[in-house]
Amino acid sequence: MTPSDTPRLACPQCGTPLDPQDAACPACGVDLALVSVLAEQQFLGRPKGATGPIALRPTSVEQLVPRLGDYLLTQGYITAEQLQAALALKKESGGRLIGQVLVEMGALSRETLDRVIARQILELQNALLEANRSLERRVADRTAELEAALVKLTEINQLKANIVSNISHELRTPLTQIKGYASLLEDGSFGPLAPAQQTAVATVMQAIARLEKMIDNLIGYASAARGEMTLALGPVTAAPLVEAVVRRSRPVAERRGVRLEARLAPGLPDVVADAEKLGWVLLQLVDNAIKFTPAGGRVLLSAGPEAHRVRFAVQDTGIGIPSERMEEIFEDFRQLDGSATRRYGGTGLGLALVRRIVEAHGARITVDSRVGGGSQFAFSLPVADRQADDRPGKAVGVG
Asked: Which residue among 10, 70, 344, 399 is the one 20 to 30 A from 39 at the CA level?
């Protein structure tokens, strides 16, 4: 930029050209430190490439401070009568600022006005600085409180996970014994059973299966909550996994009068997953769909290609989920019907674990549902690298 291109300042009070070395206007005495603040603001807002002098509005420096008249009055520079008279003249002039009117009235000098304005600006700056410091202190205190609360919550969750794990293992031991003796009764090891006895034993075995599932969910939750979940990643073929899930869940579906179907796209590639945990996720989603689908309804487990991934979906014609409660179903120990007389059983951990496992695979589970119109849970996993198909699976810890 050449000297001729440098924006030239003119005094906002009288229009006299100013020298950069001047501390005040040589003609009217206005404080140029305040003028420079306004000049910087207006210069930064000028159109690109604009040249020429910066025309500042007369005494517009007063616009940097609020209620200048009241400030002058409280500081003892003017009287209440002078302020009232200046306000009346300001109203009549329809454009002049209160400070300019007071100077013209002779109530105070231009130098005093500039000094008062500078002091008020400094006080405002200091007040703002102190407010920012106070805010920073409050934010720091609040952050420390939140960090302490987070540590406490983590400890509570850890304790809860340990309690759940211990109780689950304690429940499993007697349940194993009950299952063993019930199996001996079922296979006739203690002698033949009457039809009514066979029905009773079958009911006991079904109850044992439900308890085993609940205990497995509790143990799985405890492991995940402690960050002990491990994925044995490797290539997994979808077809046998889907078929095994349908085969295992079909008896439950038939007892409930629900039609269970599978749909597999031909030639699906293998996916990268933990086969055992992927199978558990699909089984949990299918069983959950069966549980919330009334007799005569339908549950469909499908797998199909989706942009270098394989998409798994479980769709039902069940009761559906209210949109405002969609996130609740994935919370630990959460049941949409939490009453003591709820119709649907379970620990409220199944879907919470499903999401943890799916997200541990680097995927995201989605839900599409409407009340009375059924639900669809879906997620997709990456296709396995063909060159890695023969390599052993990789164990990945999930914390």
From this structure: 70
User: pLDDT category, 72, cuts 50, 70, 90?
Assistant: confident
> Tens digits of per-residue pLDDT, 78-120?
888 888 887 887 777 776 777 778 888 888 888 888 888 777 7
Amino acid 278: pLDDT: 94
Q: Are strands 259-264 and 298-305 parallel, antiparallel or unpaired?
A: parallel
379-388 per-residue burial string, b: 16 or more CB within 10 A, e: under 16: bbbebbeeee
Q: How many residues make up the chain in this entry? A: 399
> Domain 144-222 - what CATH class?
mainly alpha
User: End-to-end alpha-carbon separation of the chain, Å?
Assistant: 59
Q: Name the phi and psi angles at 303, rounded to 5.
A: -145, 130
Q: Given this model, what pLDDT does residue 390 score?
A: 46
Is the Cβ–Cβ distance between 246 and 301 less than 8 Å? yes
pTM recorded for the entire structure: 0.51
Spatial CA neighbour of 89 closest among 78, 104, 76: 104
**HSE-up (13 A, CA, CB side) for residue 23:** 3
Token pair 């001047």 is found at 22
Instruction: Tell me which residue has tokens 């063993």.
Output: 180
Phi, psi of 310 (to 5 degrees): -120, 125
Same fold, 144-222 and 229-398: no
CATH architecture entry for 229-398: 2-Layer Sandwich (3.30)
Going through the chain in order, the beta strands assigned E by DSSP cover 229-236, 259-264, 271-273, 298-305, 309-316, 366-369, 375-382, 394-398
